[in-house]
Amino acid sequence: EISASGLSAAGIKELSFALQLNRSLEHLDLRGNFEGVTDAGVKSLAAVLGNTSLTSLNLSHSNVGPAGITYLAEALATNRTLKTLLLRDLRKVAFVSGKGLDSFAALCAALVRNATLTSIDLSLVRLEKEAVQFLEAVLPMNITLLSLTVGDASPGKGFRELMSKVKQPRQKIENFPAAELPPAIAAWLDMWTTAATAAAAAGVAVSASPAGPKKRKRMTEADRLRAAME
User: Fold this and answer.
1) Does the pLDDT at position 209 exceed 90?
2) CATH number for region 9-212
3) Chain-centre distance of CA 5, in angstroms?
4) In angstroms, rounded to a whole number, what is the distance separating the alpha carbons of residues 7 and 21?
5) CA angle at residue 144 from 140 to 150, to 5 degrees?
6) CA dihedral 203, 103, 68, 227 (to 10 degrees)
7) How far is Cα 46 from Cα 33, in angstroms, rounded to an integer?
8) Hey, which of 8, 77, 108, 230 would disulfide with 134, CB 3.0 to 4.6 Å?
């Protein structure tokens, strides 16, 4: 636990680097670190999240904004270890409109791909009707999420009905028609798929080159880890 410790942005970056070297840590509590847990700090964490053993991450009471939520969503889309995510009282985020709502669309898109998260806590983070509709759209494509907390920011009856569905056992719908997803969510999924395809194609092109891959400066494991967080 490193909650409310005054950790800086540079400290978060070094911590992210260390997480990849020590893969025995399962719980990381960074709540209350307003200086370090910012969009830039979350970018560093998100870059290494897939190479850690973390099962629980607490970023509550911090300065994470829409960009940070987006970085986190991109990491969650491929993460296979995290089960609990706490994002309580994020003062710079409201999932209502503009960048805030778009970042929530990214988070919902991540739920389509993620198969390990069981609990998300968004207490005191404002959600409006459209955000609830995003959740309703992706819920049939995710069977692991069993707890979603919003608390005082709940938009009322619609959210309560959604929560009753989350708590009930449900069978995942395979081959869900993309056309039935909200455009904002479909756009994120399409972008991630395109990026993954392009990366795979680039890898094939390099290995298939008659002249072989170009010589590059040899990188140590530490160099590679730091590069991932830039």
Assistant:
1) no
2) 3.80.10.10
3) 23
4) 20
5) 85
6) 10
7) 17
8) 108
User: Tell me: the pLDDT tens digits for 127-175?
Assistant: 888 998 999 899 888 889 988 887 665 555 666 777 777 776 666 656 6
The model's pLDDT over 40-70, given as tens digits with 9 standing for 90+, comes to 999 999 999 988 899 999 999 999 999 999 9
Structure tokens at 84: 């609990």
Distance of alpha carbon 130 from the chain centroid:
20
Q: Residue 19's closest CA among 64, 51, 55?
A: 51
What residue segments make up the domains of the chain, in order of their start?
9-212
Q: Which residues pair with 168 in a beta bridge?
A: none
* Distance, CA of 112 to CA of 140 (rounded, Å): 9
Q: What is the reported pLDDT for 32?
A: 93
CB 55 within 8 A of CB 84: yes
The 10 Å CB-count burial string (b at 16+, else e) for 154-163 is bbeebbeebb
The CA distance from 160 to 146, in Å, is 14
Please report, as a single letter, which amino acid is at residue 117.
L
First to last CA, the chain: 25
Please report, rounded to a whole number, the percentage of residues in the chain having pLDDT higher than 70: 76
d(CA 202, CA 151): 45
Average pLDDT over residues 31-48: 93
Task: Give Cα 38 to chain centroid, integer Å.
Answer: 14
